[in-house]
Amino acid sequence: MAxxxxxxTISFGLLNVPVQLYSGERSVDLHFRLLDSxxxxxxxxxxxxxxxxxxxxxxxIVKAFEYRKGNYAVIDEKQLRKAAPEAxxxxxxxxxxxxxxxxxxxxxxxxxxxxxxxADKPYVLLRETLKKTGKVGIAKVVIRTRQYLAMLLPDxxxxxxxxxxxxxxxxxxxxxxxxxxxxxxxxINAREIDMAAQLIESMSVEWNPEDYKDDFRDKLxxxxxxMVKEQSDDLVAEDDEEEEQPSKGKGKAxxxxxxxxLKQSIAAKGxxxxxxxxxxxxxxxxxxxxxxPAKTASKTATSKRKSx
Length: 308
What we know:
The chain is α+β, with helices and mostly antiparallel strands. The chain contains 5 helices and 9 strands. It has a 7-stranded mixed beta barrel with strand order 1-2-6-9-8-7-5. A two-stranded antiparallel ribbon has the order 3-4.
């Protein structure tokens, strides 16, 4: 199991439930690296001054608020730390509301609350009471350095803590041009509504999240796996060629799968060196035979001069 993000207690009235907070979501996105297309080298991001174009060190960077175009108010780090919420280890439930009264647009991120040792009884008591009453707890919690609005709700055998957006983070519906009024204002009659209701009823099933798949991710994964396999096959083919024609300065294999190929390449290289030594001996003998006529010709020229 993953490590807890936060450890503390659920607190309301006189009841305290020691819990650990775990992320209730898992990222399954495929992450890509940016490369230079010319040599496949990774691209890194730099903190560059917009004025000079030079990289700026972290120690020279400050935070500021742009209150007017090109005008900034620099905020001191000490002031930011003073404004930060006090770190607590408590999920303080301020009130309880009907579960159906919290609109889905406020939901932000789910967490799972796991009871600590000897906390099963108060944990189950709170969970079952929330189920029976149809209520959820509205609380505030500080995670790391930020304060969040949160909703405590039961979900099967678990107590969930769903972070909520604050009202100022929600875009109000009145900012959009939406069709308001009665159905008759849009020339919709009762028969059309009944037929639409029948269609919806015919398509209705029990909610089962396992019935729904991320088709795009599956297709993308298949494409990536195919490309990885093709490139792996190319690397294996290159290693096979190097076994037949070993080259000097061959680097180490970067993947454990190629360790056997590397050993074979080393063995092939050693064999080629033995063959090379064996082939050099006959060449010396051949060169000795070719030089012999030159010596004979020299002796002949000397005898001719003496005869003259």
